[in-house]
Amino acid sequence: xxxxxxxxxxxxxxxxxxxxxxxxxxxxxxxxxxxxxxxxxxxxxxxxxxxxxxxxxxxxxxxxxxxxxxxxxxxxxxxxxxxxxxxxxxxxxxxxxxxxxxxxxxxxxxxxxxxxxxxxxxxxxxxxxxxxxxxxxxxxxxxxxxxxxxxxxxxxxxxxxxxxxxxxxxxxxxxxxxxxxxxxxxxxxxxxxxxxxxxxxxxxxxxxxxxxxxxxxxxxxxxxxxxxxxxxxxxxxxxxxxxxxxxxxxxxxxxxxxxxxxxxxxxxxxxxxxxxxxxxxxxxxxxxxxxxx
Length: 293
What we know:
By secondary structure, the chain is an alpha+beta fold. The protein has two domains: 2-194, no CATH class; 200-292, Alpha-Beta Plaits (2-Layer Sandwich), CATH 3.30.70.120. It is built from eleven helices and four strands, in the order ααααααααβαββαβα.
């Protein structure tokens, strides 16, 4: 009971970041961007387009569109990530309704683009730092990247080309171009606040349960693991050193895997500036496994 309570307490700072981030993101959309017909990328952008076409609240479309992506996230990224992401979406959509009656700060399109993008970037960056996301496209991008040569960033970029291309027919070419400019500003702020949106992370895990942890990393994240054998300086006990490379959004799931397998493990996570070679191992499909048998 005490251990569970400590785990809950440890999550309080991350939920605080998620809450503040959701507040800023909702405010950016409702008091800068949406009143000036400037759209965000991803599912939020699609929701704004659908709002323009069908007159239903943006929040309703955001919730409906994100449901299948969060089901996918539960299978591929774990319960902890989904709980945080669902919390972020709920706070975000509620606040969209709260800020909706608030009059826009400016009707100057350039000011709305720049300051709305800045505020949105800071908000989304804080949500990401808290271990969640406000858009399900990040989840599907990670899943697809494991089975193809495309990176997470490339997948999101291609998806947003479709979003902003669609915006041309709904809001006109000038608003679509301003929206693209806003996205560039937002993306840069996300980089700064969240510690690089698409940056890979190197994880070093020192443990006595190497097989359980490495198997779980391979099965649940699709990442290969390199294992060294070592020895504790003080305890003189044999230790295994695991090394793997993951994406930013997979960090919470990796921590969950390690905590469930061995609470005495030591984990160090650092940034990687560049990667050469394939660090993602494609998991064979069941049909392939049956054929091998």
